[in-house]
Specification:
heterodimer, A: 319 residues, 2 domains, two-stranded antiparallel ribbon, 13 helices, flat, B: alpha/beta, D-Maltodextrin-Binding Protein, domain 2
Chain lengths: 319, 442
């Protein structure tokens, strides 16, 4: 979860000094009042928990040797971090989520963009109905969505599996190879419409004369979409990719629910599930805190990487 | 992306809510020992069958201590998470029920008190030494054994007679029998390998001579995949590969159906399961009997235990003396055992040998066609192999191993892979807790 604070724009109005000072004071008060909720929330739900996690990851109630002696809270340095990084199940969880991002991210961004371009091109009839239909799944809470899909995936109760079986196709959606695509499918179903709306509204802002100019120059609809419109909504693409990446790294709800029905999703399937298990099953808060900090660091690093990479691209193009 | 963020925080809230509720529940029902009307009030949490009856009997027999009982979910259904969360919040019950594998973990976390000094010599003398050894670490006693459950072979007498089968005495005979059953009745199998059967697998390994943990030299020596365990893993893997046994979760809908429809002919579980089955499968009365567990070496018979519980006094108890008195009564009084057996759901084998006669007399034998199962349990309890030690984080070890078992049952990896994976996933836990460790198998 990243939060960017926009610095308050300071502007100087040409006014007499006394009035200017009063205006500026009023401005400061307004600024403070309007921004206070943001900072209160930032401190309460982000900085304090992060600080606690960092503290927990460096300190521990320790008893030496077998562990049956009296406990002392001591500084343990990087011990929890070393334990997490030497845990094959944590590394496996990281690998899983990376694979998940590699499948999910391109599918979501390209899928949403294509849908938005189709809607924007005027090719689609019943535009508002299509939009509504695509957006509706996003209104379904993630846990409910996972339940619905669990029902559709589970052999024996799923009408889809039964229908496919009638056509002599046996699919085990919860089997070893299909389970990650099955989770990707749930996430796509939930989020495709939402991101399509973001792209669509960005496309609405593309000046019509630019599109007309392209058409006059002889560009067909596909060429217009790919060469004219898509570059113009680039900032939206970056934003969607960034938020989707951050969300995907915290993968939790869908696998947590599906894990009750398939052995292919273990209790440490994704980093978030690993953290949950470390804290509440293994009762090892130091380990959970260290894993959380590592996940946060990975998320920040990847977000920074994506931002840097996409910001540099236009400079290179113009060179 | 406010939609996104709010959904994640909703999820976080929904995760946190049960915990909040739990904490609230504990605050009301936790250790609020107080003197009311001259009686000391202590709280007791348990998931054991028949606990209500036992508590009622205790409250009737004396007027100094009032026990407030709360039935909690079994450990793997959240009972242990509830206990450790309550302990973190400082309101754990006075007396908590811990299964043997959980004792070292709760002792290390400081939830279970060191009760070495509070354990009277009289009580110590009443308990089976092998049982007390399982709750003693570093020469400190952390909980008092209630029952000790040697693993036995439960089998269908009618189906054994129908197919002309004899009860196997060795594991070789047992393996041969799995093939016979499969050949004689294609839809039936002799036995089930429970994919969530960490405790069963531990009992098999225990019997075969495995030593998953030991604490020699003040260090947690971990060797989940030692020679004996590898032998056991290979044995079951072979049966699995040959399609001679079922492999699914138990208990569960599928395994219940397998038992009620007679698809499995035998079960390998602790002595306690005789009573559990009476209440879960009343329709099969008179069709089951119990025999000793098959042996690797019949000349030197040994068994491991499957199940069994202990009582601990928690760090939050304000009346530890009253708590100990209640515990002592529960584990050593004939009235306590009678009350528990009268519930009709228990066949607990007491860790106090003096109570065996009481159990034999109080247990309703009609389900087992009059078989004197307590006599059998007594013989089997004498064969429990000494020296087994549970490790500090068994819930996590168990989960990883069972995830592996489930995959192995679907043809992904092997039983041995599951065991090795469990060891690899356990070591970081112990290291993060600051414990001294060493590994003796990979």
């Amino acid at each position: 979860m990243t939060t960017t604070a926009v610095p308050p724009a300071t502007f100087r109005a040409a006014a007499p000094p006394g009035v200017r000072r009063a205006t500026r004071r009023a401005e400061h008060v307004a600024c403070g009042v309007l921004m206070a909720p943001f900072f209160v929330l930032l401190v309460a739900v982000f900085l304090v928990p992060v600080g606690t996690a960092v503290w927990l990851s460096f300190f521990s109630n320790d008893e030496p040797g077998l562990g049956f002696g009296p406990e002392h809270t001591i500084f343990v340095g990087a011990r929890s971090y070393l334990a997490v990084l030497s845990d094959p199940t944590f590394l496996g969880a990281l690998g899983t989520v990376v694979l998940y991002c590699l499948i999910y991210l391109p599918l979501l961004v390209i899928g949403a963009l294509v849908l938005a371009l189709l809607l924007d091109s005027g090719a689609a009839r019943l535009r508002s109905w299509v939009q509504l239909g695509l957006f509706l799944p996003h209104a379904v809470p993630g846990i409910i969505a996972a339940l619905i899909w669990l029902y559709l995936y589970t052999p024996g109760i799923s009408p889809v599996v039964a229908l496919l079986a009638k056509a002599d196709i046996t699919v085990d959606f919860l089997g070893v190879h299909a389970v990650l695509p099955a989770i990707v499918n749930i996430a796509l179903w939930s989020n495709l419409g939402y991101n399509m709306v973001i792209f669509y509204s960005a496309l609405q802002a593309v000046p019509r004369e630019v599109v007309e100019a392209a058409v006059v120059d002889g560009a067909g609809p596909i060429r217009t979409a790919l060469r004219i419109k898509t570059p113009l909504v680039r900032s939206s693409v970056v934003m969607v990719a960034l938020f989707t990446l951050i969300w995907a790294l915290q993968l939790f709800t869908e696998p947590m629910l599906l894990s009750q029905s398939t052995a292919m999703i273990n209790s440490r399937f994704s980093p978030s599930m690993y953290i949950y298990e470390a804290a509440f099953t293994r009762n090892n808060y130091g380990l959970a805190a260290a894993a959380s900090v590592i996940l946060l660091a990975c998320t920040i690093a990847l977000s920074y990487g994506v931002t840097r990479w996409t910001n540099r691209a236009p400079g290179e193009l113009s060179r | 992306m406010p939609g996104r963020l709010s959904r994640r925080s909703l999820l976080a809230a929904s995760l946190a809510l049960p915990l909040v509720g739990l904490g609230g529940g504990c605050a009301r029902s936790g250790s609020q020992a107080s003197n009311t009307g001259g009686r000391v009030r202590i709280t007791f949490w348990s998931a054991l069958r028949g606990s209500r009856q036992v508590v009622d009997a205790f409250n009737r027999t004396q007027d100094r201590i009032q026990v407030v009982f709360q039935q909690i979910p079994s450990g793997d259904q959240g009972g242990y998470a509830k206990l450790s969360n309550a302990a973190r919040a400082g309101n754990a019950p006075d007396v908590a029920t811990l299964e043997y594998p959980q004792v070292p973990g709760f002792a290390i976390d400081g939830v279970a008190r060191d009760i070495t000094a509070a354990l009277s010599d009289g009580l110590r003398a009443k308990l089976l030494p092998q049982a007390l050894a399982l709750t003693t670490f570093d020469n400190k006693v952390f909980s008092v054994p209630l029952d000790v459950e040697p693993m036995v072979l439960h089998y269908r007498t009618d189906l054994f007679a129908q197919y002309g089968l004899t009860v196997p005495r060795t594991w070789d005979e047992f393996a041969a029998l799995t093939r016979t059953v499969r050949d004689k009745a294609r839809e039936r199998r002799l036995v089930l390998f429970p994919t969530n059967g960490f405790l069963q697998f531990a009992a098999y390994s225990w019997q075969a001579g495995a030593q998953w943990y030991d604490t020699r030299g003040g260090v947690w020596n971990v060797s989940l995949a030692d020679r004996a365990t590898r032998r056991v893993a290979a044995y079951w893997q072979q049966l699995l590969d040959d399609g001679l046994i079922f492999a699914n979760a138990s208990p569960g809908r599928q395994s219940d159906a397998q038992i009620s429809q007679g698809l499995v002919l035998a079960r390998l579980t602790g002595a306690w399961d005789a009573g559990a089955q009476m209440s879960s499968q009343p329709g099969l009365q008179g069709r089951w009997a119990i025999a000793p567990l098959p042996q690797w070496d019949p000349a030197h018979p040994v068994v491991g235990t499957h199940g069994g519980s202990t009582f601990a006094v928690t760090k939050d108890s304000t009346h530890p003396e009253a708590a100990m008195e209640f515990i002592e009564w529960q584990v050593s009084s004939p009235d306590a055992l009678r009350a528990r057996l009268a519930s009709g759901t228990s066949s607990q084998y007491p860790a106090s040998p003096a109570l065996v006669a009481v159990g034999r007399q109080a247990f309703n034998r009609s389900y087992y066609s009059g078989q004197d199962i307590y006599q059998l349990f007594e013989t089997e309890a004498g064969k429990i192999r000494d020296g087994w030690t549970w490790g500090p984080r068994m819930t996590a070890t168990r989960r990883v191993m069972e995830d592996g078992f489930a995959r192995a049952s679907g043809g992904e990896g092997t039983i041995l892979d599951a065991v090795q994976e469990a060891q690899r996933a356990t070591m970081p836990d112990l290291e993060a807790l600051g414990l001294a460790t060493s590994e003796h198998s990979t």
